[in-house]
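Because discrete structure vocabularies remain unfamiliar, we reproduce here a specimen of the format, pairing a chain with its fold in token form:
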Amino acid sequence: MVPVAFLVRGICGFSFMLMDNPESFMAMAICVVLIVFTVLEAISIEVLFFKGMPSQIRGTMMGCFAFFGQLGTLLFTLIGGQMFDRIGRNSPFVFLAAMDTFLVVLALTMACLGKFK
């Protein structure tokens, strides 16, 4: 499910390059799909992350996972805002799509190597 979520998010991100009007119905529909698959991706990653973890460290790891996830969100917000202002209005979405494409390749590689059991 993780590669599918990243793939759909990547497609949504790249489709923003084709948008002329960010207030169109199509743009809103893409945003809804993007949000749904972002939630699906987050749940899938958490399940994989905590699946085989010993119960003694699960709380600590959940805290670290949440902290670094929020730190990533903060950093992307800052970087994405600068990209929007300096490069163009589509650039944060293209960056997101490129990162998701990279993560699809990474997840598929890990799946082929048997890392997801």
